[in-house]
Description:
With 362 residues, the chain is an alpha+beta fold. It has helices at 8-24, 34-40, 42-52, 57-66, 71-82, 156-160, 189-198, 201-212, 281-293, 311-317, 320-328, 335-361, and strands at residues 100-105, 220-236, 241-257, 270-277.
Amino acid sequence: MYVAVKGGERAIENAHAWLAEERRGDTGIAELSVAQIREQLSLAVNRVMAEGSLYDPDLAALAIKQARGDLIEAIFLIRAYRTTLPRFGASEPVETDEMVCDRRISATFKDAPGGQVLGPTFDYTHRLLDFKLAAEGDLPDAPEAAALEAAVPHITGFLNREGLIQTEDESDATPPDLTREPMELPASRALRLQSLTRGDEGFVLGMAYSTQRGYARNHAFVGELRIGTVEVEMEVPELGFAIGIGEITLTECETVNQFKGSKTEPPQFTRGYGLVFGQTERKAISMALVDRALRWKELGEDDVGAPAQDEEFVLMHADNIQATGFLEHIKLPHYVDFQSELELVRKLRREAEGQEAREAAE
């Protein structure tokens, strides 16, 4: 807190009080509840959970309310709260093969093994304002939702039967935890994926879009996009085996990318991967595209100088909390710094004027 300026602390307290008043808005209108935000602004809640690295819809909804709808500020609040929580252990890797899918689509196979379910999506809506929503009418009748109850295998597994897609290396090694250890470059793929899933959706989307426009020679198909619930298990030392501790909703995307082969690899398809909390499909697809672009070195491809291929550029600028902190700190008092620069500019101008006067006299 900046308190060096006389009256600064009192001004800050008044600013906080004014902020609370602005947050509440017109008191003649019913206050928005945390439950309403959680249930009716679920996509915003999902983004806050994903980029805040904390799966808790109620806390994410509370953060959105406290932040007046500023999602980056809400993400900041969630991350700050997360640091206060005790760590009891680590869960087992989730099995997305066993996901109960509310939505599962493929852009590569019409008759996808296990079937396709459109689920709740904006993909086929007309982008026209629905003024019936402003009338706050009753919920329209909708057909009964039909999720894929049975576990469905990943579509890329069928390509792998013919050896047409690159096989992913399996490892039992515990990946580094980006929330507990600082980023180190060059980063492993596991660390890159953590950074991308926590990264700002807009930034990752922009990077992904650049790959589609030719910056990285990265032509991709959505092999599969699935949204659904998976069980989270945790091994209890006293029991000696893992037990289910709850369910979470995830969005998973696997892209299938062209690959002409290299000196060590035959022509085949390669993968990009994205996994994000909640229904966050734009982020998951973007993440998969950027993940694939960052794999150019391990796949023996050429570095074409695309921004999405630059690991340091992407990973060090994807985090919106770091970006916000560095950007917004410049609006806080920098009086001493500016005065020193102001004096320097004045000195340089005097010296330049003196030089011009001497030249004119000669």
